[in-house]
Structures are given as C-alpha cells and as structure tokens.
Amino acid sequence: EAKAQGQGRFSHFHRELQEEASHRSRMAMELRHALVEKQFRLYYQPIVALDSGEVLKAEALLRWEHPRLGLIGGGDFIPVAEQAGSIHAIGQWVFEEAANQVARWDRAGCPPIQLGINRSPVEFRRPDNALDAWTTQLAQLGLCGSRFVVEITEGLLVEQTPVVRGQLEQLGRIGSGLALDDFGTGYSSLSYLRKFDVDFLKIDRSFVQGLAPGSEDLALCEAMIVMAEKLGIKVIAEGIETEQQRDLLAAAGCHFGQGYWFGRPMPAEAFTRRLLQGKGVVSA
Ligand code: C2E
Ligand code: MG
Ligand code: MG
Ligand code: MG
C-alpha cells in the first residue's frame, strides 16, 4: 500500500512538473507577441531618503498586462523571458521607456529623481549594442547617464567575463550608477566590492522583514551599513513595510528606504502626482 501511495505521489508530482512546463512554454510563446501588442508597463516605486523623508529616487519595475492572467509582476515572467531569449528585446524596451519617462518628469517640472533600472545577467552576457542604443537615446533626450542606476545582482560581478566587464565599464563611462540588488542573499565573497565601482547596496527584503530591537537581522543590517559606509557606498533597504523597520534602519544610519510603507510600485501618472505633491511620507 505504501508503494502504491508513493507511486501516486510520484505521478502527482510528475503531472505538476508537466503542467509547470506547459505553462512556461505557453508563456514563452505569448511573450513573443507581448511587445508588439504593447502589453508591458513600467511601474515606479519611490525610494526615500530616511533622514528627510524626501523621494529622491525610484525603481522602475516591469509589469505585464496579460490578456488572460491580468497584471503580473517581474518575478512571474522574467525567468521565462530569460530562458526564451525575449529578455533582450524586453530589456531594450525597459531602458527606452525609463529614459522617456525621466524626460517627461523633467518637462513636468518634477524634482530630478534618479531612476533604478533592473538588468538581468542574461542581458549582460550577450555582446550587443543595447547600451550604445541607450546612450544615443539619452543624448537625444538631453539626459545625463547619472540620472540612472543599473541594478544587478552580486553573481554578475563574480562572473568577471570580458563581455560583462566591458558593459559594466560602459555604464561607468556613461555616468550611470551601479546598485547591487538583493544584497546579502547571494555570494558572500566581498572582494568584488574592491574591483568594481559600486554606488549602492540594496539590502534584501529578507533581512528587513524580521527587524526588531536586538534581533540578528538588525545586527546584520548594521554590519552591512557600516561596511558600505567605509567603502563609500550608499545603502538602500528594500521591503520596508512598517514604521518600526523604518525607524530601526534610520537609527542604524541607512541612507535610503524602499517598500510598501513609503509606497507600492505605481503607474507613471500616480508617481508624477506623488513627486509634484512634494516631500513627506504618504503611506498606505
Ligand atoms: P527587485 O529588483 O528586487 O525588485 C523589488 C521587488 O520587491 C519588486 O517585485 C517589488 O514590487 C517588491 N517590493 C517592493 N517593496 C516591497 C515590500 O515592502 N514588501 C514586499 N513584500 N515586496 C516589495 P516585482 O515588481 O514583482 O519584481 C520582482 C523582480 O523582477 C525584481 O526584483 C527584479 O529582479 C525583476 N524585475 C523587475 N523589473 C525588471 C526589469 O525591468 N528587468 C529585469 N531584467 N528584471 C526586472
Ligand atoms: Mg531591483
Ligand atoms: Mg559610480
Ligand atoms: Mg531586490
């Protein structure tokens, strides 16, 4: 009987795997049309200076207005896009859209925010002229590269291939900043921090979630902040959802915060209103 049960569980597991695989391949196919069908949206989440409460930065986060599934977040389709290769065209669209939006905010008289753009390792590994095209576009819009921060994960710096290195150097020449996303969750070898010009560490949300006075997570956040400070790197804490988390991080000397406490990712128009309405923390 135990054996029969085991087989049942196996075939159940097997069926789930098959369903997952067919879900992914269907999605990969749909992704091919998503760009021409104009189904992608960029949402913007405020990044706040913890001392003044001012919105000085934002992160651009990709959403897919899926005809069947509704609005879905990056985590649910970017891995598929990476595997299917459509991430290159999508990433190109993200950079273009982000640059156009920053130019629109400038024209609307908004304070000059700096915008974080996520770029996946897959995009960095392909030797192409994606960054050349972007540079040309920035020049056409009259925007400095320094208005943007490219968010990468630690793993990319560990790779150290010439193609990746070349693109990181190109970003440096444009004047764009570099942020290490999800910091603390990946490689714990920190020697790459010496070799690359990193401007921001984004403390991963998993450290912020459990923040309480005297907690291990607080000790870890404090250690990351002290280390960054000594290296001349600014710290952004991700996933701040409560006032206590905000207060503990501010007291630890963390420079910037991002999370639902300050605002969820929102469409450009809503973010424009937020920017024009000025300083101040508007939560919920
Ligand atoms: P990420 O870059 O670490 O982005 C932060 C994620 O945390 C976002 O999820 C954001 O909505 C979510 N978040 C922000 N504040 C809070 C909070 O207080 N609590 C909780 N629970 N979550 C919070 P999202 O938008 O689903 O994006 C997931 C991931 O997809 C991103 O993680 C990033 O790695 C990737 N991604 C998003 N947009 C792009 C893009 O344009 N290009 C590429 N290559 N990747 C992207
Ligand atoms: Mg990010
Ligand atoms: Mg720099
Ligand atoms: Mg992150």
Automatic annotation (TrEMBL):
Residue span of the signal peptide, if any? none
> What stretches pass through the bilayer?
none
Top-rank taxon:
Bacteria
Domain EAL, residue spans: 24-279
Would you tell me the protein name for this molecule?
PAS:GGDEF domain-containing protein
